[in-house]
Structures are given as C-alpha cells and as structure tokens.
Amino acid sequence: MRWDRLTVGLGLGYALLAWSLGYGAVLPELRDELHMSASIAAVHGSLFGVCLIVFALFGSRFLAATSNRRLLAMSVTAMVGGGVLFGVGRTAAVTLGGAGLCGIGAALLVIVVPSIVFAHQHHAPTQAMATLNAFPMASATLLPLAVSLAGVVGISWRFSYLGPVIVIALAIVFTVGRSRVPRASSGSPVALGQLFRVPHFARRWCLLVCGVLVEIGTGIWAASIMHRQGGASESVAASLTVGFFIGMAIGRISLTTILRRIEPTRVLATSFLGSLAALGPFLLGPGLVGRVAGLTMLGLFLAPVYPLSITRLFELHDDTAALGRAAALASGFGVTFGPLILGALADAVGLGWGTFALPVFLIAGLIAMSTGRAAAQTPVASPDDGANIAV
Q1: How far apart are CA 276 and CA 279, in angstroms?
Q2: What is the C-alpha to C-alpha distance for residues 323 and 192, in angstroms, rounded to an integer?
Q3: In this structure, are residues 346 and 360 in contact, taking their beta carbons and an 8 Å threshold?
C-alpha cells in the first residue's frame, strides 16, 4: 500500500461519512427534543441504506456516465449539505431531509471508493481497504466525546456536530485537489443478476449483509442501550460508546498483520464467533461496566468483517463497477434494515428484547459461512467470459 494525497483524501471521505451519519451519538437528545418515536429516529440511519439500494439497482447508467472525480465531488457536497440541514433542523421533516441528502452522498462514496482503491492500490487492495476503513472509526470515536463535552459545558450537541463536518470537507478538497482519480477498471459490463450466478458470490454477499446489519445496528443504538438499559445519562451514554469504535479502529489497523499469519476464512469465522460472545455482556451486563467491556470487545472482533467481505467479493470478478454496486446493495440492506428492525422491535417489545436481533444476524452469518467451506480455495470460471477467477 502506498500513501499519497488521493489515498488520504479517500480516508477523509470515509471520516466525513461517519461523522455526518453519526446519528447514534445524538439520537437520545434528538428524540427528547423533537419527541420522536424509536421507529422515526431509526429512519435517519436507514435512509443511507435506501440510497445505497436505489443506486445499486437503478443507478448503473448514471454511475457509468459520471467520472469518479465528479462522483467524489458530488458525494462530499451532498454529505456537507445534508449534515448542515440535519444539524440545524428543528423538526423531524427537516432532520430527515438532511439525513436523506447525507445518505445520497454517502452512498456515492461507498460505491465509488472500492473501484478507485482496486485501480489505485492494485498491489495491496485488502490492506488499503482495511486501513481506509479505520478512518471512519476515528470520527465515530470523537463524535460521542464531542457530544458529551457539549453537554458538560452546557451547549447544544448541534455545535459539536456541525463544525467538524465543514473542517473535514475542507481537508478533503485540500488533499484530493489535483490528484488523478482513476476510472474503474472493468471487463465486459455485467448485470447484478449475472454476478449472483458466479460461484460463492451469493454466500459472500450474504456475509457482507450480516456484518453490516450488526455494525450499523450497534452503532445507531449503542448510546440508547447505554442510556435506557444501562442507566447512564444521555450525555454520558454517548461517551460510553467510544469503546466500540476504538475496538473497530484497532481491529482494522491490525488486520493486515493478522492476515499474514491467518487465512481470511478463519479470520472471518473468528470475527463472527467473537462478536457473538461479546454481545452477551453488552446486552446483559453485569452492570454498566460489563456493557462497556462487551461493546468494546464487539468492536474489536467485528472490525475485520466489512473490509474482508468487500475484498473477497472483488476477487470473484473483474468488473469493479458492477461489484461496487453489488457491495452497495449488500450494505444498503444492512444499513436500511439493521436500525429499522431494532427500532420496530424496540417499539413493539422494548429495547431490551429488541436488541436480541443482533445475535440472530451473527448466527445467520455463521450459517452462510458453514455452507460454503467445502468449496473454499477452488478456482471457478466466470459465467461471462470463461476466465478463471480466484475464490
């Protein structure tokens, strides 16, 4: 992996995504201010997933006709505009509008970055994806601390949310600047339906969905769990979630070293099993200390799932544009339905019981892995051109 201005800019783009979409840290206060139900609050995070699904299913022509540089510019502009709208909104309609605009920008970023990385960092794409995905963990760590600090000094969470949105956007403009942004490298154009006929693709796609369901669901609802189930105050609850994001950052930064010694399939299996074990203390305690420890361990074990799932998808075909849309579709399902399922269950049976959807998602991921182990490490042929591709 090589560091340059474009690589740093992509990492900052992920940091802006995590900050502008960091609704989990502010949901407790936002719900009290605007008297929102859990389901309406969950829609803020789910709009990102809706945008991912729409672009993945219906945006192929637009994405193909727009350069990667322009897509990056549109992405940053939309996230900044949406973040400002969300941060100043005093009604649910306005905050939802801002969340929708942020979702559009974030969806464009998620779709275009893997294609750029595989073209720009073709010698070390797994290392690059893992390292770049540590950037949003910095934002996710600092945002709850900023919200908690705002509560301590007696100012609104809106100030601590809005300022860094502008600062990170300016840093992206400075770093990317005149850097050459490569186009996606692709072979013959492939429809999403064709990708799902590639051996092992559907299984790896399902793994990505399950990982995102748990990651986003936890990120959105962790502060509320600490507040409502753990008994922490609203301002303290936000700060108690930083362990999750610190664990995620450590896990992703160390992933390259881990992969030198352990094969990716074993890393993924360990990630799912470790995450399942960590959910016990996070959801049940004992006490607030037990919940914080469990949440931190959950972040550490869950960290490899997203970058490994993305890179393993990109091993199966050479059309990176189509693969980017397929990965966005998987992320869209996870981002959309993770918060919504938890929000709907919280309204129906209470947040305590509703959070038990998280281990169900992890068990589904383990089942998807177990169904394909026998076929691992075998070469298969692309249904489009007969070329051998690695699995």
Answers
A1: 5
A2: 8
A3: no
